[in-house]
Amino acid sequence: MTKILLAEKLNECISRWRTAGIDVIGPVKKHNSSQFESVQSAAELDLGLVLTDRTIKDLFFPRTEPMVRYQIKKHAIETEEFLPPDQKRIIFGVRPCDASGLAIDDPLFGWDYKDEYWFNRRNESVMITIACTKSDEFCMCTSLKLAPDSSKGSDILLRPLADEKGWLIEELSDRGKEAFSSIADLLIDDSAPLAPLAEVPVKFNLEASVAWLKNPENFDSHFWKEISARCIGCGSCTFLCPTCHCFDIQDEGDIYKGIRRKNWDSCSFALFTMHTSGHNPRVTQSSRWRQRIMHKFNYFPGKFDMNSCSGCGRCTRQCPVDMGITETLQEISKLSR
């Protein structure tokens, strides 16, 4: 017998979690845009979205955040470090591709230096993922060897019931079990038919594309100029990507005091690689697009044994000139034949 959470009980679940001091966060649609925000009731949630416009990355890696306040005095430098507050969170209604994105970035933020900002938030958060029963033309999780019901990065996986009245519960971690222990009396022991998963066709040959990217002869291929010709370098694909993680550190203040901040940056920007000498090793947009693709499917897997892409499709879905990773790897797949 399995546990089932009925949709009609979700509001009570949220109320109990909030009463216990837990911040409940979920997909919310406002002003023609969707993102994850704190909610007070189930009525605020929009669980029918294929995918939110913005990823849950913002919740763990904010677009900008203070790191340290400093003040230079006559005989000393005083500093005050900022760290995220200890706030337990339940993030409800996450899609598998977004949860997978967090798991992809975990080794990066814990590699040679452990990023306390990232892991403090990760350790305080419970990821409740809902398997996908619908997709759109931009979804490509299956092309990345993932699936509409991937459990990677999740603490709880909810599988929608065929009657759309609730979810079958899969507990995947101790954190997930603990979160659901407080609502155990709201769950029912039952079995019911599940809704069919979304059908997401494979759109490119990943193995062939990766092999082409690893071939040094293709680094200076004319292909990069052709495929990136319409890229305007806006950075939308990187900022909306669940795995892109580049940032810059800047000091704001005057000569005696200020705050050091961590801000998102993008390899799509010309300034990203600009040297103080004025030299830029990636002077063209084609070289910057090449770096983005090479990083995700060559350099990152070479270091962490996984691709830096979870197949959400936002890079194409939100691109103002309708290009993205899918098209690039489709064309590379053709070149690999």
From TrEMBL:
<protein>
    <submittedName>
        <fullName>4Fe-4S ferredoxin, iron-sulfur binding domain protein</fullName>
    </submittedName>
</protein>
<dbReference type="GO" id="GO:0051536">
    <property type="term" value="F:iron-sulfur cluster binding"/>
</dbReference>
<dbReference type="InterPro" id="IPR009051">
    <property type="entry name" value="Helical_ferredxn"/>
</dbReference>
<feature type="domain" description="4Fe-4S ferredoxin-type">
    <location>
        <begin position="300"/>
        <end position="331"/>
    </location>
</feature>
<keyword id="KW-0408">Iron</keyword>
<dbReference type="GO" id="GO:0046872">
    <property type="term" value="F:metal ion binding"/>
</dbReference>
<dbReference type="InterPro" id="IPR017896">
    <property type="entry name" value="4Fe4S_Fe-S-bd"/>
</dbReference>
<feature type="domain" description="4Fe-4S ferredoxin-type">
    <location>
        <begin position="220"/>
        <end position="252"/>
    </location>
</feature>
<keyword id="KW-0411">Iron-sulfur</keyword>
<keyword id="KW-0479">Metal-binding</keyword>
<dbReference type="Pfam" id="PF17179">
    <property type="entry name" value="Fer4_22"/>
</dbReference>
<dbReference type="InterPro" id="IPR017900">
    <property type="entry name" value="4Fe4S_Fe_S_CS"/>
</dbReference>
